[in-house]
Amino acid sequence: MSQATVQVGTGPVSEEDLVAVARHGAPVELTEEARRAVATSRARIEDLANNPTPVYGVSTGFGALASRHIPTELRAQLQRSLIRSHAAGSGPEVEREVVRALMLLRLSTLATGRTGVRLEVAETYAAVLSAGITPIVHEYGSLGCSGDLAPLAHVALALIGEGTVRDHRGQALEASQALEAAGIEPVVLAEKEGLALINGTDGMLGQLVLALADLDQLTRLADIAAAMSVEALLGTDRVFAADLQALRPHPGQAAAAANMTDILAKSQVVLSHREVCGIVQDAYSLRCAPQVAGAVRDTAAHARSVAARELASAVDNPVVTPDGRVESNGNFHGAPVAYVLDFLAIATADLAGISERRTDRMLDPARSHGLPAFLADDPGVDSGHMIAQYTQAAIVSELKRLAVPASVDSIPSSAMQEDHVSMGWSAARKLRRSIDGLRRVISIEILTAARALDLRAPLEPAPATAAVKSVLREHVEGPGTDRYLAPEIEAVVQLAVSGELVAAAERITGTLR
Questions:
Q1: Which of 56, 125, 140, 339 is catalytic?
Q2: End-to-end distance of the chain based on CA atoms, in angstroms?
Q3: SS3 93
Q4: Which of 303, 405, 304, 285 is nearest to 351 (CA)?
Q5: What is stated as this protein's family in its record (predicted)?
């Protein structure tokens, strides 16, 4: 299905539009308002370019070389040299969706009219994005201050017809070839334009918005997994009652507890706990599931408020103010975004940790209330899900390392002119790995809980958890002798990615919170 064109104007990009462009390949176009704003600010830059007084970014060098005044005849070379020298990334390729996200956000800043580029530069940027041309950007190169310089420079390099890109089919080729095939003319950059293309927090911000979209789904999936584990371990749903949650009125906690109550409604397994089970209190990993998943939600809500302010920003240096001044500033510093990226990595690691603890409990006959050891068909001959939990433990250990903040580090650069940096790009990169790890940990919990619920027969699970288990059983067989387990884990991961597991529960419960 083709995606509707996203309009890029003088206002902020929405989270939904960013996901549509980054993940689903939606094309973009500038609004008429944006075109007028770009043209107006460019006129001011051209006035300054003809003025003998040096203006940073317009008629001077950059960074520690800002003291040199650049004559008119060398300014096109200055802009080209800036892009070439700053396109100094190294390491593996960054994911296509991340590159498209940062491109959309840089285009959004260009469209505000605060950067001083010519209209043809913004139009070319939009055309490259709409054609599905994705410049190859590398893992290392950004310190998260003066913007995501190297990643954005690799994108700018493609606009001038240099470097390597991938076309809409994913084939790697020279940028000049890709532009020609798409009917796009490379741009020759004029005063201020090279700097305007690379001076922003777009890479780290794009990854933050994508992570928040992922966490919206993963927190709901975590509630489903926790509810399935509560059933599998003959736990109670009484601790999730709304009046108990109201005694500690964190909004995320209330949402998670309400989800778990709805998911467990009409569960025969839970009813059996009320009637015959001698368990006085469930373990923390069951009883406190809403407190942890809720705290993740509240952390994400804070991060989303930071992202919203950043999406409404025009980050460049120097910047063209609404009254026509061209002023240096420090708005490119990534600290606000870096902090919440690190905060989310902490929350992600903890949500994965409690999920792993529930899985381990289901596998231990001393704590699982009647389930066979490791849910094996013939314990001793079969190992069941023993090593699936090892995989969870390995991932959780990695997530704890990734939770160490990147934003507390700073390595001075540019001959001490840039003497404090945010490391926000690094914070974003490790959060992406954390999100992937969380998804895998929760998927293993769901796979294990589904097997445990099958072993609880003839007790029937709740309609919502039964629906999730039914979708899973279309891809993974039920209990039996040991099988090749890795493909089964991956099948559940893909069901998590697609949203099918959450959708299955929501067909019973309605939209989860």
A1: 56
A2: 28
A3: strand
A4: 285
A5: Belongs to the PAL/histidase family.
- What is the rounded CA–CA span in Å between residue 227 and residue 389? 18
Q: Please state, in angstroms and rounded to a whole number, the distance separating the CA atoms of residues 169 and 92.
A: 19
The pTM assigned to this predicted structure is 0.95
Beta bridge partners of 60: 69
State the CB neighbour count (10 A cutoff) for residue 230.
30
1 exposure class (CB count in 10 Å sphere: 0-12, 13-18, 19+): exposed
Beta strands in 121-246 (DSSP E): 134-135, 138-140, 164-166, 172-174
Q: Is 284 a catalytic residue?
A: no
Which two tokens mark 388? 């699936």
Around Cβ 430, how many Cβ atoms within 10 Å?
A: 22
3-state secondary structure at position 147: coil
- List alpha helices for 131-192, DSSP H: 149-159, 175-181
| DSSP of 462-488 | -HHHHHHHHHHHTTS--S-S----HHH
Place of tokens 């994108």: 155
Q: Is the dihedral of CA 97, 98, 99, 103 positive or negative?
A: positive
DSSP assigned state of 320: E
The rounded distance, in Å, linking the Cα atoms of 190 and 83 is: 12
Domain boundaries, the chain: 6-200, 207-509
Instruction: Identify the three-state secondary structure at position 327.
Output: strand
Among 45, 16, 190, which residue's Cα sits nearest to residue 104?
Answer: 16
Q: How far is CA 101 from CA 23, 171, 191, in A?
A: 8, 19, 26
Element (H, E) at 30: strand 28-30
Q: Is 411 left (phi over 0), alpha (psi -120 to 50) or beta?
A: beta
68 Cβ neighbours under 8 A, 6+ residues apart: 60, 61
Residues 204, 191: Cα–Cα separation, whole Å: 26
DSSP 243: H
* Residue with the two structure tokens 């009652």: 241
Residues in the chain: 513
Handedness of CA 51, 54, 57, 60 (dihedral sign): positive
Asked whether the domain spanning 207-509 has the same topology as the one spanning 6-200, the reply is: no
Q: CATH number of the domain at 207-509, please?
A: 1.20.200.10
3-state secondary structure 436-448: HHHHHHHHHHHHH
Q: What confidence tens digit (pLDDT) does each residue in 304-340 have?
A: 999 999 999 999 988 999 998 989 899 999 999 999 9
Instruction: Specify which residues 8 forms β-bridges with.
Output: 30
So what's the architecture of 6-200 in CATH? Orthogonal Bundle (1.10)
Angle, helices 424-455 vs 486-498, to 10°: value is: 110
**Dist. CA 269–CA 280, nearest whole Å:** 16
Angle subtended at Cα 331 by Cα 208 and Cα 26, rounded to the nearest 5 degrees: 40
Residue that wins the pLDDT comparison between 49 and 351: 351
Q: 496 and 439 in contact (C-beta within 8 Å)?
A: yes
Whether 1 has a pLDDT exceeding 80, the answer reads no
